[in-house]
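User: structure tokens for this one?
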Amino acid sequence: MVYKGYKISPTLSINKIFSIHYFEYTKDFDFPGEQHDFWEFVYVDKGAVCARGGDLELNLIRGDIIFHEPNEFHSLHAYGKIAPNLVVMSFSAESPGINWFRRKVVRIGNQEQELLARIIHEAGNAFSSDLSDPWLPRLKKRPDQVFASEQLIRIYLEQFLISIVRRSLHIDDDREPVSPLREKTDKDAFNRAIEFINNNLVDMVNLDAMCRSTGYSCTYLEQVFKNKTGRSVMEYYKVTKLERAKDLIRTGDYSFTQIASVLNYSSVQYFSKVFKRFVGMTPSEYSSSVKFKLT
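Assistant:
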């Protein structure tokens, strides 16, 4: 028997990556606009922004993504009330499937959010560039680049775009989990624990109190959080609390002492110590790092 290979014709293929950014902006940032001969999308990971693309001007909230086609003028600004987090990525694609994204603004789901997270993670493995620098002229390859990280970025981006189109066409990619009962139990436990954390963010929470409130054993909750987040329950609680601290810093309405008090840290010194351990910089350094000022 003679075998003949089938040549795959990609419907949507990425040629080049120009930029990958994760921005944590201040509440009053304003980007006056630009245009270039490649595609770009802006995804709102937290907060809200006003985005302009061509003759469209739209208010975007968490979960929204806007696509800008090549040579389309686009600008962006915050409302002055909420400090937004944004994922911005630019790329070129010549395959016919990319035309679907012209003038598109859509909401993405958990599957697409997970793929974005993977892209950001692999960007750290592939490039030494500062992903928070809005004026980055080009991505710089890491000398110790992780095996196939660039290829994974392209694969994840193509899968991300395909998933968006399929979602809009109501093509269901979900698969039944191997153990649906266990999956549901884990999800319920995780959601109840997250709700407890969010409702008690400023309190001196401990694991025993969380377990009593949610009705799950400490061992089980630790296992669920490790599987879903890679962190212990209390590490996740501390990081969530610090995310709230970062939000407060970026609003610019509170001093570090006030933030420490609002979030029930024993002192501003202890707050600064914990912040640096988990974030990698002091509150003052973080405050300076996220400011987006045009010169």
